[in-house]
């Protein structure tokens, strides 16, 4: 199904295919499941950001006025990824085993080579004989050119009342 | 507040602690972290008798504002009435128990229980008319149908505490020298402090006392948080070195703090090059205002030195790269609920607020570069205590015989444990 007939035309002239968006998101999830973290970081456009507001926060919550869990600019995101690979990241060493399910992929908007995409997720993280579940939705701002997506901004909205019992967000959910 | 002296008490050996003043040994029984009977006793001797943190005045900015919160394991409504007076009520209906208010926060003239409809003014008075003859004529003459107030409610400089013991000493007496820590915090800005958007609610699968120990544990910083310091070195463009000179303050009644100059920037008012030239002049101005208000020496202490404070039994105020308040309560010996907030200076600019929150998130909270590793350490220790038959005691003797304690010693924890064991053994 091609979505190019929807709103304004595409600057790149590329077809924005729903299956391509899904494939991109599935591959992103696989990178995280498989701890291919450098590949994951490379999905971000330089200057990109990654945010996780508090559990139950609205999509509109702002990291300038609300206390988030994570509000990474590109610099700090790089450090988050570097830290995840280190033995000294005790929370994730030995590594947890994670499984990310993605669904309900929707193209919310697209214009001038930029699109907004939403998906729902269920992520399980297992470590120390305990398996925790996170659920919610991801919001992406993606740039696309000649069939290539880059993440300009990713936001993970945790659709849970609180972070009890999970206690921490030490993985990329 | 004076430099901690080795206090003059005798060596003590109890089922919970060994406090050997002569040899400089301090041990804590691991069963204190795993035993159900000890938790039951803590509920009675500690959580039902100590002053517990309830909330900050800035969370209820207008008349009729309310919030609901679990304090020491019990559901509470914290609110302001039509006149603006502060109240705290047990959030359980005097009729048959349902929670009278189930929203996290709001603004309401009255509370109405959804179960059978009993209603209460926001000063707690029963406000439902019943047909004559439904209840005795003098029903509620004893207040049985009013919302039950917490036995004691008091505030110190905008920080509200409650006490479930009507016979407790006053809050000021209880806080003792910990008041000076709250004073310094309130002095960060000319108009005081406020809680910034949202409460982090998470849990840790470990005994609640481990989080108190961890929150002012200068000893663990380098080992547990090495990756944070690697990040920090890159962020500040230089080596992230821990302070050469630190202080440990015994604030009395089980309260204690560590203090020192750490490598990170502080919103009040320590600039680091990574914040850029604009921030530099803004920080300089904040510092000037601070100096003009509290004097040079005190301003330097407030601005340059960070403080990790534990207020007995379960309030942590960490004034470090940002300010966090956290409180926690045991659900079970091996499980606690944590609530954490960020505090900021009232009236600070949005750009400044953003910088403060960024500083908070780089270290603190469930997604920070440090707190998750603390959680891992606490949960790991908790699992270790399963072997208490083989290894029955923790050691927190570090620095015990030194003439002056440092933040990397364990005196602050000994302050906590002495108070804890006094209360558990009915000596307090
Ligand atoms: S329990 Fe509240 S009205 Fe009955
Ligand atoms: Fe820590």
Primary descriptors:
heterodimer; A: 173 residues; alpha+beta; six-stranded mixed beta sheet; 3 helices; 6 strands; 19% helix; B: 428 residues; Rieske Iron-sulfur Protein; Naphthalene 1,2-dioxygenase Alpha Subunit, Chain A, domain 1; 2 domains; seven-stranded antiparallel beta sheet; 11 helices; disordered N terminus; binds FE2/S2 (inorganic) cluster; binds fe (ii) ion
What structural category do the secondary elements of chain B indicate? alpha+beta
Tell me, briefly, the overall form of chain A: globular
Q: Residue ranges of chain A: pLDDT <50 for 5 or more in a row?
A: 1-13
| Name given to the CATH architecture of chain A | Roll
* Terminal CA distance of chain B: 21 Å
| Helix-strand string of chain A | HHEEHEEEE
GO molecular function, one term (chain A): oxidoreductase activity
Protein name (chain A): Aromatic-ring-hydroxylating dioxygenase subunit beta
Family (chain A): Belongs to the bacterial ring-hydroxylating dioxygenase beta subunit family.
Keywords (chain A): Oxidoreductase
Describe the structure.
The complex is a heterodimer of chains A (173) and B (428). Chain A has one domain (2-158): Nuclear Transport Factor 2, Chain: A, CATH 3.10.450.50. In chain A, 19% of the residues lie in helices and 39% in strands. Chain A is built from three helices and six strands, in the order ααββαββββ. Chain A has helices at 18-33, 37-42, 74-84, and strands spanning 44-52, 70-72, 97-111, 114-127, 130-145, 148-158. Chain A is globular and about 45 Å long. Chain B is α+β, with helices and mostly antiparallel strands. In chain B, strand 16 (306-311) and strand 17 (315-319) form a beta hairpin. The longest helix of chain B has 19 residues, at 276-294. In chain B, 46% of the residues are buried. The interface between A and B is large, with 35 and 44 residues. FE2/S2 (inorganic) cluster is lined by residues 93, 95-98, 113, 115-118 of chain B.
